[in-house]
Amino acid sequence: xxxxxxxxxxxxxxxxxxxxxAIECFKKAIEINPxxxxxxxxxxxxxxxxxxxxxxxxxxxxAISLFxxxxxxxxxxxxxxxxxxxxxxxxxxxxSKEEKKHxxxxxxxxxxxxxxxxxxxxxxxxxxIEFSDSSSAIRAILWxxxxxxxxxxxxxxxxxxxxxxxxxxxxxxxxxxxxENSRIHVNPKLEDGLVQFLKESVDISLTDIKDIGxxxxxxxxLARVITLFETYSFKTKDDSGIVRSAILADNTGTIxxxxxxEKAQVPTISKAYTIENAIARQTDDGMELHxxxxxxxxxxxxxxxxxxxxxxxxxxxxxxxxxxxxxKDLKENDMNxxxxxxxxxxxxxxxxxxxxxxxxxxVIEIEDDTGSIxxxxxxxxxxxxxxxxxxxxxxxxxxxxxxxxxxxxxSVGDNSNIIDASFK
Length: 424
What we know:
By secondary structure, the chain is of the alpha+beta class. It has 9 helices and 22 strands.
């Protein structure tokens, strides 16, 4: 068995509250891979449940050192950040149980970042927010029922009976934690002058896509989904899941985006979203956005009338990427175009082999008022359902010349997209 298999068994025993059996499984995972940060993290919780606090602290400290190594190699690893933070919190919680009571504080500020709630073991839930006043920003951890509050960026938040903890990951060196004695007040009644002062002193504006650069870290944008590609599964040594890429656009430009795991199921073609805490990365192909566990997506249906009016329509934004062309006007090697036509013929899929690689291919034919053209669909595109008489829009096809027929054809693969022609 692999270490991850023992981890899964250990998690099953943990959920059954068989903590000693869980520890045995996690120990076996560690014997196979002493650098298994997940096993060290999990065994820390199991020892905590058995009230073996010394072993729990030792395990969490080992997990933190391994998460630090991961973050040194990839500072944007949200999962490592959150797990490291939680391990550090557990050490503080254990120490407080044995050494001292918390010194509670009351604090108020304007919310600048909101992360989606995270479900933990034993039906616990936490949510991380950041809020600011005129001096600096600080992170707060909300637990259980407080993690489900309707908190939005720009809200005023008051935390009553929070407590300060040291946190080396924070720029200010500490964070606010909460417990069963804490009370969270969203948009409490304050003096008008204080509310105005907070809103004027804290910048909560969105970033325009054209302004996303190498120095961008976690950013918030309002954008529309212009092109949405197929969902793919991925598997690495340490992780597995799904990812879906898309092209987003606002009034200033476009950017390639990647939606990871549960976020991959959210985007819909043509819809607008406010996306918070997206990670910007510079690659050889330009800037990219990555939307994962630490990110938040707010459906455009909740936008204000003013926000909706300010964001261009799907058709207007799509024209930033693709020029519309009729079939008779197509030329070989045309780039960044879209073609709308009615399907008049659909052939069966077949396999095509080249240089030892096997591809799935389907040929369809479309027509518009100016003529008709064959369309070669590759791999995932070939596997979709196409119906004669249906109108489709092809975004970014490759226009190729077929020497055998002396005709132009369209080639549609990974970098192209086919959507309903009604999106216009």
